[in-house]
């Protein structure tokens, strides 16, 4: 049995590597495509940010106080009349509420409150945040610089206005200040789990359809079965091939990702060799799981094309959990989340990218992946024994 | 020796083979003829163990094909009809190697055996070419060699002469004569009346899933003219023209 599995595995791997389509799609593409995507994303984001920085629209609750005047003076801020409603309608990026007696407080050296409310849906608002923070900070700093004088009632309204008017935040300065939050790192750590997962799934799809449905289509499955090799050996040999290709694919995606990080000199702060090796560890199980799923689809399908059609939605299903998981923090993930298929893989990879090596979580996730794989394998095995599935009817 | 008893096969509601019985002795070459859809391919697939019969039994040298499958399988080689399934990204030789290894042959014997077959079926010239570059006839030769690479005792061929040129066809049937001397049993289906008449010991005629006649071809060859023999087979194959 083992010998037969190894004969089948070797042969399938050899043919897969000879197939330029599979080779390029599964091995080369992720390595090239992932960094390319990151480049495009970060380029278009910085472009977008630039555009926004030139045109920040705000609405105010209290008109004509010192902060209002300060903002009105900034070149890239556009003030719109209409209050909070404008924010709700998405016409401005933020709505600003200041103390009713802001001017009085400033002139008397007291602490002031400025609250900036951002729209919760518009990407504009999200991107505007760092800029407005810069303006707010500058304003408060200037005010506090003459707070001592003001406390002694030695500052007039005109003087305060004048001081504030001297200060303009250069539009180009704001982005520099704000990009301290390493944006590249954010993209890398968001895309890493997604890409590794996606490629461990997509990577084995082509291979799995070729060696199952494709084999039916080419009329080689019947001769293969008639050699008397046990069907378990056939399924396992092929399964290992698909899993290997999926693994190569996801490792290649990871390599592309790290390549990008190195090129952009992004350091992933908590990444250690241990964490990295556990990422590989999880990838092995993930690839195995997706290979079984893809194999099941392939065995069921009558042709390569049909198999590919069914596999599309599966790879889409992979993307949603990664997207969902992106918005949750890696600290304090409830333990039951590690039992939700696919989501659990995303979480554990995310954790590892944050440098958290939690053996409980790793164990649970690998365990589940093995269980899912075995379950799907049993389905394949059942199908493979049915004449109606093997010999097209 | 192959003993087929009352074999039936349903595909859903389609009754493809309807209670067929016959025997094939060692060293006997049997031709299987019948119209398209008569059930020839289905019968051969059942004999190879690829399909399970819905009813009936097949014994090979006393072993039950169904219950003692593993003992029997390695003694059977089958060429499936229709498209010749070769692995396109393996060379002709690698295709044979793969099946030989899967049949449990050891590496050294494999190379020797393939060389013999390449010589015999004249594909030595293109044995190292990728299968997808081969013509239909070349592929057919490789496929034939592949199904007997493990030197089985029972050889089943579904339309082996389809796609072969005269020369290749002649080589194939001469090879069968050789197998006959080695006491192997051969069953092949064919639409070439000439090949069936010339190279068989026995002809099994199928019609709509039934075996309508098993005849001794050697006797007929001697006692009837070629024309009469043709007429007779034609009548057996096509129901309408059969009288009494
Ligand atoms: N896999 C299958 N599924 C359903 N019906 C089949 C299948 N294979 C063969 N048949 C049907 O069985 C009958 C016999 O087919 P076959 O054995 O291929 O005939 P032949 O080889 O003599 O032309 C035909 O009616 C065919 O449609
Ligand atoms: Mg047929």
Beta fraction of chain A: under 5%
Percentage of residues in helical conformation of chain A? over 70%
Strand content of chain B: 25-35%
For the CA atoms, what is the radius of gyration of chain B?
Answer: 18 Å
Largest interface: A-B, 23 and 34 residues
Radius of gyration of chain A over all CA atoms, rounded: 29 Å
Structural class of chain B: alpha/beta
- Report on the biggest sheet of chain B: 6 strands, mixed
The number of strands of chain B is 10
Taken in chain order, the helices and strands of chain B follow as EEEHEEHEHHHEHEHEEHH
Mean of residue pLDDT values of chain A:
85
**Broad shape of chain B:** globular
Q: How are the strands of the biggest sheet of chain A laid out side by side?
A: 2-1-3-4
Whole-number total of structural domains of chain A: 2
The helix tally of chain A amounts to 18
Q: For the terminal residues of chain B, how far apart are their CA atoms?
A: 33 Å
Roughly what is the average pLDDT of chain B, rounded to an integer?
90
How would a crystallographer describe the biggest sheet of chain A? 4 strands, mixed
Describe the structure.
- The complex is a heterodimer of chains A (393) and B (244).
- With 393 residues, chain A is mainly α.
- The model of chain A is unreliable at 176-180 (pLDDT under 50).
- Chain A has a 4-stranded mixed beta sheet.
- Helices cover 71% and strands 5% of the residues of chain A.
- In chain A, helix 3 (66-73) links the parallel strand 1 (56-60) and strand 2.
- The radius of gyration of chain A is 29 Å and the shape is elongated.
- Chain A has 18 helices and 4 strands.
- Chain A has helices at residues 2-18, 20-54, 66-73, 84-88, 102-107, 123-145, 147-151, 157-166, 173-178, 183-211, 213-217, 221-226, 231-263, 273-300, 304-326, 343-353, 359-384, 387-390; strands at 56-60, 77-79, 94-98, 114-118.
- Chain A has 2 domains: 2-43 and 181-390, no CATH class; 55-173, 3-Layer(aba) Sandwich (abc type-2 transporter like fold).
- Chain B is α/β, with parallel strands linked by helices.
- Chain B contains 9 helices and 10 strands.
- A 6-stranded mixed beta sheet of chain B has the order 6-7-8-3-9-10, sandwiched between helices. A 4-stranded antiparallel beta sheet of chain B has the order 2-1-4-5.
- Chains A and B meet through helix 1 and helix 12 of A and helix 2, helix 3 and helix 5 of B.
- Bound molecules: adenosine-5'-diphosphate (ADP) and magnesium ion (MG).
- Adenosine-5'-diphosphate is lined by residues 11, 14, 16, 34, 36-42 of chain B.
